[in-house]
Amino acid sequence: MKEHRTKLTEVIFLRQTNADIRKAVAGRGFTLWQLAATLGITDSTLSRKLRMELSPAEKARMMAAVDEMEKRFGGEAK
Questions:
Q1: Residues 32-74 pLDDT 10s
Q2: Which of 14, 46, 50, 74 is 20 to 30 A removed from 66 (C-alpha atoms)?
């Protein structure tokens, strides 16, 4: 039972990494695959990157891409 709790805690932790990026994307009505396309990477690569906390430079690059998406396509994309 203790091992299960440890794994569950790890899963919760992984979901919290890079929450600012995830919230920025979702809050503007976009999806992570759209962010990946804007960055020129696959959605699976983006998913892997988001599992661990990103460096400030990488976060800035992703936030700039989110801003670019909003300018190009408008917020609350469908």
A1: 999 999 999 999 999 999 999 999 999 999 999 999 999 998 8
A2: 14
Closest among 57, 12, 51 to 32, alpha carbons compared: 51
Alpha-helical (H) ranges within 1-78 are: 2-16, 19-27, 32-39, 43-50, 56-73
Q: How many alpha carbons lie under 13 Å from residue 75 in its C-beta half-sphere?
A: 6
30 within 8 A of 78, measured Cβ to Cβ:
no
First to last CA, the chain: 42
